[in-house]
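#lab-general

N.A. 3:47 PM
ok so I finally got the sequence cleaned up, no stray characters, all 153 residues accounted for. can someone with queue access submit it? mine expired

B.Y. 3:52 PM
send it over

N.A. 3:53 PM
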Amino acid sequence: MADWTLPMDGGCRCGKVRFRISAPPMFTAVCHCTGCQKMTAGAYSTTVAIPRAGFALTEGETVIGGLHGERLHHQHCDHCKSWVYTDFEPDMGFVNVRATMLDDPSWVTPFIQNYTSEALPWALVDSPHSYEKFPSMEEYQPLLAEFAQRHGG
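B.Y. 4:20 PM
back already:
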């Protein structure tokens, strides 16, 4: 049984940017890297990876904020500056939605924690998988399959 009900809606703090998720999440994660710590003004960021085809903005537009890299694009509301999601160049087939932007994030529990090497000592979370950096590319398919099996996706 899934922990969520589709579709899922969410949006930024001020409500000018809204989105809808129409596909099951691929995985959930927290990232402890210092970049995420600074972007969230917290100990880590929370992510729900959503297939690209299952994510759509329904109101407003986002602007790139935070990291202005060639590969990662942190999408923010231009009005309230909320970090709504991250997409990738080239497109990797999914977007990382900030879990706290969901209207109901209560179901989100970390399946993976990344960048434990940069974690604040008191901020590690209980998750089935933990990595000093990111999982290797070879590890992703088994992780996706395990997450789907555990969560009915």
